[in-house]
Specification:
Immunoglobulin-like; 287 residues; alpha+beta; five-stranded mixed β-sheet; binds copper (II) ion; six-stranded mixed β-sheet
Length: 287
């Protein structure tokens, strides 16, 4: 019973996946992006994505076992009960024990899958003690990012057109202003939209949240390692849907503080810059 409990609370899944050589957060240090001929998930950069990948791998094993079992049954029936081998078929039409089994066993399998699935879903859903907040807004067809804890610093993030790519920059993935966040920090991500439905999706964080007009959706991430992470809008949102990628740069806390100062300075120095701070807006007239 204890074994079953350990299994259901998640440790069993992790153990199984590790035995089968799945990647863990600790092993994934480099940038995460889609690669040519990639199989499987991108390396996890957050605990959420590590758990998602582990759960996915465990489900794959369960599915493979069920499929192999059904295939075995079919092959057995075809070989054993074809009309040459079995010219006079039995007239049996019911077997209560077998019928109970093929109802109860699949239900049990589904319950065993549902328990860790719901646990993970609620773990992903809400962050308990966020250290900072990022607001993401989806537009046709770019993202804008806002830092309410950094005096409302905000800017737009646009794709770099193919003709303007510098060496080393990724076609359809790199942007002019990436989202810069501190690594090893619990970040609440609030997501909304201004026109149609978009979806902010960064595979290696396990974050995928719809950006809907008039609604503030929430997710969270704690990026374990510094690095550059790529994502894309994954809700068909119009003709330039494929051209609103996401770049997240996770840096050290000190580098982040420095970056915030520089961005704020940039916003103050140059009004035409795409960077804004809330404090720079004209004050409302006194009543
Ligand atoms: Cu979109």
């Amino acid at each position: 019973m204890l074994r079953l409990k350990t299994w259901l609370t998640g440790n069993g899944w992790a153990l199984l996946a590790r035995t089968l050589g799945a990647t863990s957060v600790a092993a994934a240090a480099e940038a995460a992006e889609p690669r040519p001929w990639q199989f499987g998930m991108q390396p996890p950069a957050t605990v959420v994505e590590e758990r998602l990948s582990t759960f996915h791998d465990a489900l794959l094993i369960i599915i493979a076992l069920i499929t192999a079992f059904i295939l075995g049954l079919l092959v057995y029936v075809i070989l054993r009960f074809n009309h040459r081998k079995n010219p006079a078929p039995s007239r049996t039409s019911h077997n209560t024990v077998v019928e109970m089994l093929w109802t109860v066993v699949p239900v049990l399998i589904l319950v065993i899958i549902a328990i860790p699935s719901f646990k993970l879903m609620y773990y992903m859903d809400r962050v308990q003690n966020p250290e900072m907040t990022i607001k993401v807004t989806g537009h046709q067809w770019y993202w804008s990012y806002e830092y309410p804890d950094q005096d409302g610093l905000s800017f737009d993030s646009n794709i770099i057109p193919e003709a303007e790519l510098k060496p080393g920059q990724k076609r359809l993935l790199d942007v002019d202003n990436p989202l810069v966040v501190p690594a090893d920090t619990i970040i609440r991500v609030q997501i909304t939209g201004t026109d149609v439905i978009h979806s902010w999706f960064v595979p290696s964080f396990g974050v995928q949240e719809y950006a809907i007009v008039g609604r503030l959706n929430e997710s969270w991430m704690k990026i374990e390692h510094e690095g550059t992470y790529y994502g894309q809008c994954n809700q068909i949102c119009g003709v330039n849907h494929a051209f609103m990628p996401i770049v997240v740069e996770a840096v050290s806390k000190e580098a982040f503080a420095k970056w915030v100062d520089e961005k704020k300075k940039q916003a103050r120095d140059d009004n035409a810059a795409p960077v804004r701070v809330a404090g720079a807006a004209p004050a409302a007239p006194a009543q």
